Write the structure tokens for this entry.
Amino acid sequence: MTSPEPRSKVALITGGRRVGSDLARTLGAAGWRVAMTYRSSREAIEKAVADVQAAGSEGLAVAADLVDPAQAEAAVSATVARFGRIDALVNMASVYKRTPFADLTPADFDAMVAANLAAPYHAAIAAAKTMTAQPAIDGIKGKIVFVGDWATERPYKDYLPYLAAKGGMTTLATALAVELAPFIPVATVQPAMIEPPPDFSEDDKRAVLDATPLRRFGSPEDVNRLIAYLLDGTNFVTGVAYRVDGGRFLADG
């Protein structure tokens, strides 16, 4: 079977006000049709979808709280109903919250696991089941990319529930790569800080830069060029995690 034209490919991106929106535009410019989910960031996601459409591709915004398995399944179903298949899932949605150890509550753990482990799990299972049932193209029925965090392998303080959930997601991706071979490659991209959060002080920013060997923050493009390669540039990568961290993993302390 010959490969389709790039326009026939369909990606579902979960959330991502900044990096996910940039990825939608990148894939749309490459001819992908793009669906995006949102829970609370409707305006940003609809803007990204409108940009995809303005560039000449097709887009779809889907309201979904992916913590609910039924809504995850509905988001995948809406994508397939609109575009006919799903060639890629990019699990981008995430919640990043500082939780100092002295202030931890059980609710912190529950919230981080829900957003950063349960939601991507439900989205991946729904997408994978749909991909498994569709015809293969060049031996591949679909691809799944998780966006994790470099610090799950070298944790820092004050983010225990977040890092526990993200670490579980990395293991989830590796296990799925085994479950879904040989037809659905699965990979993880592990960024360090991509543009500082709005609540970061100048001291916070300086501390991160001082701990980064390349002495800069990452950009959405730094992450999304790698994701685009995994989706379009190779069919021979699965079960791996790529750090996009400016060297943070190499730094002391």
In short: Strands lie at 10-14, 33-38, 59-63, 88-91, 143-147, 186-191, 240-244.
